[in-house]
Amino acid sequence: METTDENVSVELDLWASRVEDAHRRIQPMVLRTETRAGMGVVPDFQGKLTFKLEHRQTTGSFKLRGAASRITALTRREAEAGVVTSSMGNHGVAVAWAGLEAGVPVEVFVSTHVTADRVARMEALEARVHLVGDSVLEAEMAARAAAESGDRVYVSPYNDPWVVAGQGTIGLELLEDLPDLDAVFVAVGGGGLVGGVGAWLRARAPHVEVVGCWPEHAPALHECLSAGRIIDVPERRTLSESTAGGIEEGSITFELARRVVDHRVLVSEEEILDAMRRLHASEGSEVEGAAGVALAAFLKERSSYQGRHVAVVLCGANLSPWVRARLADR
Questions:
Q1: Which positions ≥6 away from 238 have C-beta within 8 Å?
Q2: Confidence of residue 1 (pLDDT cuts 50, 70, 90)
Q3: Does 6 score more than 90 pLDDT?
Q4: Disulfide engineering: 160 pairs with which of 76, 84, 147, 156, CB 3.0-4.6 Å?
């Protein structure tokens, strides 16, 4: 069937309604994070720059919004059975936290490359953690198999409409706080955050430009969008650890990103590190690499946004020991 503008509009309106429903459901579980002027970080910008302080979310990452949305959407039977997920950090912690709050048992599958501190955080939140394989894909396959065999819900980090809707609540809050907003810069991994934020803004405030931001070392969804289909994309180690990883076949975020991302920016590891250091020096804020990606992309593109009001989503503050060492190393 041919996709018309009217069909796209109806679909985006449905996504926006999902975001608004998620916003109502997750309020008892998540913080409504602040927005704050960021001109001290970029004093030469002739416009307005605002940061969305999602790195101050309860679990230190925006991921709690999607996890809380999925957990609160479970049926009674699903909640009693418990959920399964796979993650190397922020998503697993978020699902564990939301599950503990709601009384839902949680199992998290991680690869052997996960850091000990992240396993400890999940276990402290009463999640059962399983170390499986040497890759994110192996852990995910094991998690999905365990969910299927136990007739339980698998909570994807991004390929789940309830999760995407939860992440989209950031867009809703941004426009409530910043009615004169012109553009928003968002780091992209699996696409749940940019898809949710972008879908809500496209439906409710289509004049706001959505800018997707990627590290050059991990540009999976960026390259899939360029190819027009989901492909395997080689990656290198990146400071933006939480956006690393491929896009699974059939992911809902691929088509969503095609429709809602207006502009795409790639940044180098040096640009990411510079952005993280700028933020730390100016405001004392320590953010993870993914937040650095969004700020680095704005720094790179700022000449095109003079005179406009731009928001940058600082999506997390959970640094691995390696990233923290790089940040401190001069």
A1: 215, 217, 218, 244, 269, 272, 289
A2: very low
A3: no
A4: 156
Residues in a beta bridge with 79: none
Q: Which of 144, 166, 147 is nearest to 59 (CA)?
A: 166
pLDDT band, residue 248 (cuts 50/70/90): confident
Using CA atoms, how far residue 266 sits from 79, 219, 271, in Å, is 40, 8, 10
Structure tokens that stand for 45 in this block: 């910008």
Q: What is the DSSP string of 3-71?
A: PPHHHHHHHHHHHHHHHHHHHHHHTTTS----EEE-TTT-TT-SSEEEEE-GGGSTTSBTHHHHHHHHH
pLDDT band (50, 70, 90) for residue 259: very high
**What DSSP letter does each residue of 216-271 carry, written as one string?**
TT--HHHHHHHHTS---------S-GGG-S---TT-HHHHHHHHH--EEEEE-HHH
Q: Around Cβ 262, how many Cβ atoms within 10 Å?
A: 15
Reply yes or no on whether the pLDDT at 187 is more than 90.
yes
